[in-house]
Amino acid sequence: MASDHPGVLGPLLAGPPASDLPVPEVVLRIAAGRPVRPVWLNQLGGVTCEIVGDDGHWFVKWAPANSGLDLAAEAARLAWAAAYAPVPRVLDQGADTAGSWLVTAGLPGETAASDRWKREPGLAVTAIGEGLRALHEALPVAECPFSWSAADRLASAHACARQDLLDPARWHPDHRHLDVDEALGLLADVPDADVLVVCHGDSCAPNTLVGEDGRCTGHVDLGRLGVADRWADLAIATWSTVWNYGPGWEGRLLDAYGVRPDPDRTRYYRLLWDLTP
To answer: Which residue among 202, 233, 262, 274 is the active-site one?
Structure first.
């Protein structure tokens, strides 16, 4: 699942698709006659479908060609992280002229952004905070081959700016008063890292799974996973509570994670989020 905030990707929000969304042909082939339903549509036209069989359930992420979504990179990150944390097990990954796909085994639990957990935001937010802390503690920084550092992301933002791909009108309202040069100027002063961890990379509510007992059961959508300051994740996780549950839940998530608020790093990483894919 992709983040539900538009950022640099465009004005459309990710979320559950319309009931009549066509299922990509390759997904139907993978389903081989088993029931299949689209469960998530992202900003770039990528769709996640669930396949249900007598012996379990699977998810297929499909990305249209030239969308910029790199499912091979996500497969590599999942394969690495699976040795340490509850993330989807990769079953298949491939591409053709129409697009690319990633098949993973289902995990227990339900997205923290489901209607059920939106009715119990306190439990959901606590699960997100505790789950994120557990993920950060489980993934070994020294052995991680992937980076999500502010420096790398800032270089990407500058590359997007040179190609005229940054549009402040698509940013969060908190940032739309800035022009591109102003935003890049603010981002030039990278804060010192608080604690380096292996970040999720898209730590919004839809990407945390919650079990019947209200505890985190796993994490999905790790296409940006890499080493970075933990506030790169925390800034987005807390922001996502506002998008999904309304104001007033950010402190509870930080309490569940076990950290005090850091307004400066939070502001920095939220702005960086808007400028980087």
So the answer is: 202
